[in-house]
Amino acid sequence: MVEKWDKVESKQLADYRIFKSRQDTRRSPRTGEVHTFFVLESPDWMNVVPLTPQGNVVFIHQFRHGSESIMMEIPGGLVDQDEAPAETARRELLEETGYAADKIVLIGTVSPNPAFLDNTCFTYLALGARKVQEPELEASEDIVVEEVPLEKVAGLIRNGRITHSLVVAAFYHLERYEEVNGKP
Q1: In contact, 60 and 29? CB cutoff 8 Å
Q2: Architecture of 45-181 per CATH?
Q3: For position 4, what pLDDT does the model report?
Q4: pTM greater than 0.90 (yes/no)
């Protein structure tokens, strides 16, 4: 059976706006040897699958600096320290798309990359999403909004148009939600 590794030492290395880096020294319970690991401490994330009454998903398109490409995604962002993830979902949906929802439902969580990240990504379903205002973008955001029929999403994932792993995971959670609750 795999056992938890004891932490021998931990020290902060750097503090960036969206994450901190830390070096942990841990002892292997199997060999007793000490090893060094690097961890990115990040606030939890959240994403939201906005579904309109007509059965469309509200997507956003934006340039991502890590991949240096324009990605097709769903709204999302960092959970503020003083805010519940569901409230972040409502806020980010409104800010990034100008849409509001009748109901926000948690449909799943994932650990984005537990090898070196310490956070959780919450996925919400926004039912009854409808445009109520223009998006309120930050100066560092350029976003275009597009509605796509839900039945076309699997094809967009299959053909490589949607490649963001957390977006793919969100639609997996939506499928599981639909298995239990029926189509929204």
Answers
A1: no
A2: Alpha-Beta Complex (3.90)
A3: 96
A4: yes
